[in-house]
Amino acid sequence: MVIVVSDHGHSPTIVDRLYSQHFHGPPGILLMQGGPVKPGKALDGASIYDIYPTVLYLLGLPVPKDAAGKVLLEALDPDFVQAHPVRTVPSYRGLGLSPGLTRGAATSR
């Protein structure tokens, strides 16, 4: 599966150094292909905030209830969604590293 996302569009020119092309371009793009994605499905009203819960869902991870967005189920095959219901957790906030571990450190069991 491939997902391509931009958080904003761009105009091909800069209008002013203080007023960039961010205000003139399209609102952004979301392209998804492969796996359970419905081919050719246009999404109306999708938000950049929907990417995080959607990717978690597609990875088989629970979606935090405090996430700002939602899983873009309308973009996915209904049979897949029925076979893989969205699982949730209250939040991922407060999850820290175990004592003695540092970011990027490999662990073995």
Q: Given the C-alpha coordinates, what overall shape results?
A: globular
Q: How would you write the strand order of the largest sheet?
A: 1-2
Distance between the termini: 30 Å
Helix and strand run: EEHEHE
> Beta-strand level of the residues, as a percent range?
5-15%
As a percent range, the share of helical residues equals 10-25%
* CA gyration radius, whole angstroms: 18 Å
Which runs of at least 5 residues are low in confidence (pLDDT < 50)?
none
Total beta strands: 4
Q: Please give the largest β-sheet.
A: 2 strands, antiparallel
Structure explained in plain terms:
By secondary structure, this protein is α+β, with helices and mostly antiparallel strands. The protein is built from 2 helices and 4 strands, in the order ββαβαβ. The strands form 2 sheets. Strands 1-2 form a two-stranded antiparallel ribbon. The protein has a two-stranded parallel ribbon with strand order 3-4. The protein is globular, with a radius of gyration of 18 Å.
Provide the fold topology.
Elements lengths: L1 E5 L22 E5 L17 H8 L4 E2 L13 H6 L4 E2 L20
Parallel strand pairs: 3-4
Antiparallel strand pairs: 1-2
Structure described in brief:
This protein is an alpha+beta fold and 109 residues long. Helix content is 13%, strand content 13%.
Q: What key attributes describe this structure?
A:
globular, alpha+beta, 109 residues, single chain, 4 strands, two-stranded parallel ribbon, two-stranded antiparallel ribbon
